Amino acid sequence: MLVKSVMHRGAKVCPIDSNLETIAATMWNEDSGAIPLVAENDRVVGLITDRDIAMAAALKHRPLWEISARELVEGKACHFCHEDEDIHSVLKTMGSLQIRRMPVVNSEQQMVGMISLKDLIDHTASRRSQKNKDALTPEEVLAMSRMICETRWLQAAS
């Protein structure tokens, strides 16, 4: 089963040089906790979350309109997947990286959609009765969800 059969389309993006106030307003208007960031040629170069904005507000001691998204994501890995990737592989990646949302890109690294924990749960719930051998199982989604939610200090203690 491919990512494009599970992802949702129509997610908003912001330019990487947008300030955090603008991104926070976009999140509020779109009822979204994460916004992909794009650079030249609309290539996805990062993802900023509401938590990123909250931490920047608390730790940078500057107004949000003075902090660019670039400051928060530059030098950090941008995790995304391709629409034609196997969903099981993406599920494992999300679990191991502890990420709840991932931009989905085409071959030019341009945004085509998002895949989120909610998308995976919704897809699994709708497929339970269809007996599709490639569909995600509830057990796979639950295991990935547990990995995502595990506290990092618990991982370090293991």
What does it look like?
This protein is α/β, with parallel strands linked by helices and 158 residues long. It has a single domain, classed as CBS-domain, CATH 3.10.580. Helices cover 42% and strands 16% of the residues. The protein is built from 7 helices and 6 strands. A 3-stranded mixed β-sheet has the order 1-2-3. A 3-stranded mixed β-sheet has the order 4-5-6. A hairpin with a 5-residue loop joins strand 2 (34-38) and strand 3. Helix 4 runs parallel beside helix 6 (138-149). It is globular, with a radius of gyration of 16 Å. The model has no long low-confidence stretch (mean pLDDT 88).
Q: What is this structure, in a nutshell?
A:
The chain has 158 residues and is of the alpha/beta class. Helices cover 42% and strands 16% of the residues. The protein contains seven helices and six strands.
Q: Compute the gyration radius: what is it?
A: 16 Å
Distance between the termini: 33 Å
| Average of pLDDT | 88
Number of domains: 1
Q: What letter string, H or E per element, gives the SSE order? A: EHEEHHEHEEHHH
Architecture per CATH nomenclature, i.e. the level-2 architecture: Roll
CATH class call: Alpha Beta
Query: How much helicity do the residues have?
Result: 40-55%
Shape: globular
**Low-pLDDT segments:** none
Q: Total number of β-strand segments?
A: 6
| Class per helix and strand makeup | alpha/beta
State the strand order across the main sheet: 1-2-3
Characterize the main sheet. Answer: 3 strands, mixed
Looking at this structure, what is the CATH superfamily? CBS-domain
Return the CATH topology: CBS-domain
Helix count equals 7
Approximate strand percentage: 15-25%
